[in-house]
Design brief:
Chain lengths: 106, 278
Amino acid sequence: MQRLIAAAFLTASLGAFAADGDINVVIENHKFMPDRIEIPAGKKVKLVIDNKDATAEEFESHDLKIEKVIPAKSKGTVFVGPLKPGEYKFVGEFNEKTAKGVIVAK
Amino acid sequence: MFGTALVVFREVLEAALIVGIIGAATRGIPGRSRWIAGGIAAGIVGSMLVAGGAEFISKLAEGMGQELFNASILGLAVVMLAWHNIWMSSHGRELAANAKKIGGAVREGAAELSVLLIVIAVAVLREGSETVLFLYGIAASPENSAVLMAAGGAIGLVGGILVGWLMFAGLLRIPLKWFFSATSVLVLLLAAGMAAQAARFLIQADFLPSLANPLWDTSWLVDNGSILGKALQGLLGYDAQPSGMQIVFFVTVLVVIALGMWWAGRRTEPSATSASPA
């Protein structure tokens, strides 16, 4: 429970980074928020992508080898890592001009 | 407009290359055009259904429905391609020798074509459902000009089909002597590549371990985001940063189908000369 509260607190204070919980990413107006996500290196994390737009988006990352359609107004889950330290780019394939982001493993 | 054309082109490319190869590989089998057209039509209808049911599919299997769906239909295509290649290694020679006199094989040819109809439908469905979602998204957003976007989509579509047709026409120029060997190798690689892609979805869904990820990195040479990378992905499951599990799937399917072809070819070779005077 304490851990949950701590995670919730962390999520609230650091935006995206929660050591023991899911990482939430929002898609709105074809943009990712946050568009820079820090995760611990060497650990598997769960990313919950919440598409608030009225159209579908495809979360795609060649660096991370993920390809997943997130239907309109719904959430999708992807697992990331364990990753070596470094930067891993991702895009929303259906709106590549605006929907861009990076995962930073530290 | 060109952005739209490019996305649609990339999506259509993979399916078009597969249709091109299947079109060539079924050379000499009567009635194949109808079956191929049927596969494409089924794939397009399926695309719309899958796009419409995207949310439903996504929510299955605790949010991993899409990965399982993709892995399953890829697995289905692998089995069908395996069947095709093994069938071809026992009948291909007859087809090449005499396309008109195959008589009894025509019925079997229908079974063979229905198998390939499924492969084509699956290829079109996989890429098509994403294209439908993408185009729907574009159509739904008010800031885009509908006419320009429709034009972009059409350019991408025609471009993709053109590449598939070039594949088909190019393959048909291969002399008959090597033709079935060449298409068999392509279909074999196609099947192994699809198995590797299925593995990737199962890893993404966390159903399989990745076993060393990535095993190597050739993104400096051909990136998966590039057109060439996408074409190679469609043809042989190219991944610039493959995981160990993907390689295991690729090699296993390659070896199993090759053994099946060798076995079928050996089994029919003597009987083809002695027991088929008709």
